[in-house]
């Protein structure tokens, strides 16, 4: 799939990674639709910064299927040639640790709604928009018979996390829900394969964005101890390289690409020592 001449939805498009991905797509000749929850004035200014006619902003709650559907329809109308999505939108709710597991139930529900359900909704609405001319010929509401193609028609990239690969207590809610994102991607790669749409996942380690900026020292210590190389947070600019690779690599489908410097999540619990969770109060 070429970037040039094509349009891609970017959820979380006003964030640190989203901005890098949007810039990279525009610099490679594509157009972007930025989906986020921030004020429309802020979003419209950001979209305009990419150049006239190259980007639009849509204020969208990714957990609301109808909101996403309407926003995607606007993208098709205003930018045209929709070919896929880079789904970055996610939240991480942080709290102090206690020994009461039920303290996390409400947080789990909130993160599931955005991080996991939101992934399925965005993927479904974008894929259906790409397939609409063939699924509903002549704009009718009637569904066409099942069809297949050998043409590459779209690409969706969801964002998992290194936390999905090393499930432990410090990622009590976030990790399992990102693991579910990997499962959604793998399943949808099979479902959408006949219609020529690829689905993959990128799982970064630590990218220093607003979501975890206050834990920079803690994460750096962990990377120094448990990553292979490089043992530092991933620059957001490096994430776009993985996005570009997955957009352009036709034979990569149903895969999860780890961009983590070989970081392996480990909990050190020395006998008689301090539980590592207490070193990062508020991590989750």
From TrEMBL:
Biological process (GO) annotations held by this record are: fatty acid beta-oxidation
Q: Which SUPFAM superfamilies match?
A: NAD(P)-binding Rossmann-fold domains
- Read off the Pfam families from this record: adh_short (PF00106)
Coiled coil, from the record: none
Q: What are the EC numbers? A: 1.1.1.100
Superkingdom, taxonomy of origin: Eukaryota
Give the transmembrane ranges. Answer: none
Q: Which GO terms describe its cellular component?
A: mitochondrion
InterPro entries to which the protein is assigned, alphabetical: NAD(P)-bd_dom_sf, SDR_fam
Alphabetically list the UniProt keywords. Oxidoreductase
GO molecular-function terms, A-Z: 2,4-dienoyl-CoA reductase (NADPH) activity; 3-oxoacyl-[acyl-carrier-protein] reductase (NADPH) activity
PANTHER family hit by this protein = 17-BETA-HYDROXYSTEROID DEHYDROGENASE 14-RELATED, SHORT-CHAIN DEHYDROGENASE/REDUCTASE
**What is the name attached to this protein's record?**
3-oxoacyl-[acyl-carrier-protein] reductase
């Amino acid at each position: 799939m070429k970037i040039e001449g094509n349009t891609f939805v970017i959820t979380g498009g006003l964030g640190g990674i989203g901005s890098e991905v949007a810039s990279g797509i525009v610099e490679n000749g594509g157009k972007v639709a930025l989906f986020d929850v921030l004020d429309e004035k802020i979003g419209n200014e950001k979209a305009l910064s990419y150049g006239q006619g190259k980007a639009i902003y849509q204020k969208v709650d990714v957990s609301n299927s109808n909101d996403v559907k309407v926003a995607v329809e606007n993208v098709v109308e205003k930018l045209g040639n929709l070919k896929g999505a880079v789904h970055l939108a996610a939240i991480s709710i942080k709290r102090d640790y206690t020994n009461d597991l039920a303290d996390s139930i409400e947080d789990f529900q909130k993160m599931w709604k955005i991080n996991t359900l939101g992934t399925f909704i965005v993927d479904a609405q974008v894929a259906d928009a790409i397939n609409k001319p063939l699924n509903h010929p002549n704009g009718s509401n009637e569904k066409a018979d099942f069809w297949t193609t050998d043409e590459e028609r779209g690409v969706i990239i969801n964002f998992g996390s290194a936390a999905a690969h090393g499930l432990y207590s410090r990622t009590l809610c976030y990790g399992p829900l990102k693991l579910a994102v990997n499962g959604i991607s793998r399943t949808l790669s099979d479902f959408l394969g006949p219609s020529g749409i690829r689905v993959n996942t990128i799982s970064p380690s630590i990218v220093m964005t607003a979501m975890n900026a206050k834990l920079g020292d803690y994460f750096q210590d962990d990377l120094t101890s448990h990553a292979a190389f490089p043992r530092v947070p991933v620059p957001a600019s490096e994430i776009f390289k993985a996005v570009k690779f997955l957009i352009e690599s036709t034979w990569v489908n149903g895969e999860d690409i780890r961009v983590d410097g070989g970081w392996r999540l480990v909990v050190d619990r020395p006998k008689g020592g301090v539980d590592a969770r207490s070193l990062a109060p508020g991590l989750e």
